[in-house]
Amino acid sequence: xxxxxxxxxxxEHQTLIESLASKIDTNAKCNWELRVYSRDIRTPSHELRxxxxxxxxxxxxxxxxxxxxxxxxxxxxxxxxxxGWYTGFSLLNGKIGQFPGNYTFxxxxxxxxxxxxxxxxxxxxxxxxxxxLYENVPDEQxxxxxxxxxxxxxxxHAERVDAVMGKDWVNNCFEASGKEKILxxxxxxxxxxxxxxxxxxxxxxxxxxxxxxxxxxxLIGKGLAASPLKISAVYSSPSLRxxxxxxxxxxxxxxxxxxxxxxxxxxxxxxxxxRASPPTFIPxxxxxxxxxxxxxxxxxxxxxxxxxxxxxxxxxxxxxFCQSLIxxxxxxGGCVVLVGHAGTAEACIRKLAxxxxxxQRDFVAFINKVPFCEPILASKxxxxxxxxHPPIPKLWHMDNKKFDIKLMTDLQS
Length: 413
Known about the structure:
five-stranded antiparallel beta sheet; alpha+beta
């Protein structure tokens, strides 16, 4: 395959590009496609840097560098750096942190910041003006009314503590008091209480949601309770942030329709993120004892985690689980709620819709665009599964950025 992409080219290149385009043999025996791409909106304020040498992070605020990876690097961190260390986002693993700049070089190729949205085969198609590039692509007006058949409402967990407070939050919020560790709440967005578990350090790999996360979950729960969707069951990933999100959502439902949450390991995120340190989850029975609405009689369909799982394996286990739910609830109908991670909707819906799975790079690009507590509806319309906006109002809010009092040094005594 050959693809040429002209973007933000100089005016003086217009004639050359038109000349090259006019020389394309449209009668050539090949498959022609018209493609629509979206571009990472952060690109203008960032610089792309290709990794030339491997680097393993030594501090919690650093990221690993793998040869072949591309780092979307903040321009301000480059201009302000005095030690050659920059701040950037790995397009390969989705992590954000600091890295040594001399292990990378500036790249002038921006193709890795583009994500394929839709491809339309051109052979045997009607004239260009009659082709809908956005057919079956959800938009703000494309929400689906009450589904007539079985549907899935896939919800990403709410805001997680470590995403706001940093990776060292556990060390900073628990202090020693004799033989015990007591809570030190240094930020109002931190939970005012925590679930009991074997070790507080298990929170590092299995963090809870923030106070804002609790509010997000409650708002989604209220929206869901007021919607025309008839909830048949609620499933959750075993991750604490997902269980807490599901619990706050369920609390908003009327007592007569409030289902117990079924903990399902199949809904856990891709194991490829956790090969070095798999998380330790809280058993369903312990969650039940601490007041969570958990169905302790339910047995997960996946009992063991494969830490060497490939991305395709993750797609496959998500698809098989959805297939089992279809067999179980097809006659009942209604909506089955799945509370999972940023990639859960993509992994569950794509193979149901009979679409090819994404590459790891495109998968990472997708999950970084899914907000906390985002609900996505999967429904079968005209015999085909597709993704839609659910009949629930959207949830938007702004970031509350950190304030540096040094900005007011002239007002300090």
